[in-house]
Design brief:
mainly alpha
């Protein structure tokens, strides 16, 4: 399929599966890439595999981007979901390496969408793309400051990828608004399978403490997850730590309220249990906010369906969470009533007190290449300064306002899910830098899709485009 070509919604997901030359070539590339990765792990190639994996990911990503862009989006999502696990298994067999080139793969493949920025931004400035331009202006400013600060090239490149890759994907999805039903369908299908796989692996991880995960826990010095024994830690499943995993699952689970699938029920059960086992309270709170947004965004009949679904799965999960094996969930929930004596909460407050004054007086910023901070507002102000933050946050706020305008969410549950993911992410910025890296990817995918949906539905009303399936 060529970029910009509109696809009938009836064929939305089957476009990925049909055996035309582009799709067949895409599946062949993914199959060969996956087989070679497994072979490299079996041969314990270690650091050599990590470099080859990232280069191979980029090659497959470029092929899919130009020949089968629907598959490109799904492939990119899977990299974000699975690469940290691939890295841990490879390190277990071939030797621990830090930093690991493996972890660059999702960023560089996502950054391929920078091609769309150069191709579409000038013509899209007057067609709804101006807020995206503000975001990229803020990041370009911070890049110049980081170069002037003299940060080393590795720090600048890795930090830049963390900042710029997510909004690039959001812009890419926005400019392909004509294919919104197709992209919506493939994202829903990808997410429902991802929740099932990440949920099952997360439960397995918690109950068995796999050797490769415990090896990584010891080598990385990541002690805050817990003890290196079964049922002794907060899970991170296929991701790098409980925080990113909890927020990835929060977003995916909210999207699943808009999905119809034969595997939806097992995905929800395993996904929610793993989400609880991550024990990330801020992600739990964000999910509650997201559900409230969903309820207020949907038609009354969908609201009732959502409430019934929540009650049914709540009743199904309660006995599981009450088992002795999962007693840590109840203890974590109970900690909400005793935050005053909570060590992590007190540490965050102490950090806030130390950083608030220098952050608020930092007009220029330290630039891209500076470290990221636990509080999202400090990452904004120290990395981008007030100047870059005004551009970035200004563009982001305009996009969010557009997302919440109108009544499209009443007849398109995916738009309601996009609203829920975006607002539940923004509400957590005091607790983490959720606008970058994996959490930022989820934020911008859903924001880009939400804005694309608004434009699609508006044009549908004006020009009678095919309605979404």
């Amino acid at each position: 399929m060529n970029q910009g070509q509109s696809i009938s919604p009836a064929n939305a997901y089957t476009e990925v599966l049909k055996t035309d030359s582009d799709s067949a070539l895409g599946w062949l590339a993914i199959g060969v890439f996956s087989a070679l990765t497994l072979l490299g792990i079996a041969l314990s190639l270690g650091q050599s595999l990590s470099i080859a994996f990232t280069a191979g990911s980029l090659g497959v990503g470029l092929l899919l981007y130009f020949r089968c862009p629907i598959m490109y989006v799904s492939f990119t999502c899977w990299l974000w979901f699975l690469v940290p696990l691939v890295r841990r298994i490879s390190d277990f067999r071939g030797g621990y390496a830090e930093p690991s080139p493996f972890l660059l793969a999702p960023f560089v493949v996502t950054a391929i969408t920078g091609i769309a920025l150069g191709e579409y931004l000038p013509k899209m400035l007057r067609k709804g793309g101006f807020p995206f331009a503000l975001v990229f202006i803020g990041l370009f400013y911070a890049l110049l400051v980081g170069i002037a600060q003299g940060f080393d090239l590795t720090s600048i490149v890795t930090s830049l990828l963390g900042w710029v890759a997510p909004p690039l994907m959001g812009f890419y999805l926005f400019v392909h608004w004509r294919d919104y039903p197709t992209y919506r369908h493939v994202i829903q299908k990808t997410f429902v399978w991802a929740v099932l796989i990440m949920g099952c692996y997360g439960i397995y991880q918690y109950l068995t403490a796999p050797e490769w995960d415990m090896f990584w826990l010891a080598q990385s010095g990541f002690t805050s997850a817990g003890r290196r024994e079964p049922m002794g830690f907060r899970i991170w499943s296929t991701l790098n730590s409980p925080g990113p995993f909890g927020n990835m699952m929060r977003a995916c689970l909210l999207v699943l309220f808009s999905v119809r699938s034969k595997i939806l029920v097992p995905s929800l059960i395993t996904g929610y249990l793993a989400f609880l086992l991550s024990m990330v309270r801020s992600a739990w709170g964000g999910w509650v906010i997201g559900v409230l947004v969903l309820i207020t965004s949907l038609k009354s009949k969908y609201q009732m369906q959502l409430i019934i679904t929540l009650l049914v799965f709540g009743l199904a999960l309660f006995p599981l969470a009450s088992l002795d094996s999962f007693s840590a969930i109840g203890e974590r929930v109970g900690s909400f009533s005793n935050l005053g004596n909570d060590g992590s909460a007190n540490t965050r407050l102490a950090t806030f007190g130390l950083l608030v004054e220098p952050a608020l007086t930092n007009l220029v910023g330290y630039g891209i290449g500076d470290r990221h901070y636990e509080w999202g507002i400090f990452t904004f102000l120290f990395n981008l300064g007030w100047i870059g933050t005004i551009f970035y946050v200004g563009g982001l706020i305009v996009l969010i306002i557009r997302l919440f305008e109108g009544q499209d969410s009443k007849h398109d549950k995916f738009v309601a899910a996009a609203r829920a993911v975006v607002l539940s992410t923004m509400i957590q910025l005091p607790f983490g830098s959720l606008m970058i890296d994996s959490s930022g990817f989820m934020l911008w995918v859903m924001l880009g899709m939400g804005i694309a949906a608004k434009k699609y539905h508006r044009e549908q009303r004006l020009h009678q485009l095919p309605p979404p399936a």
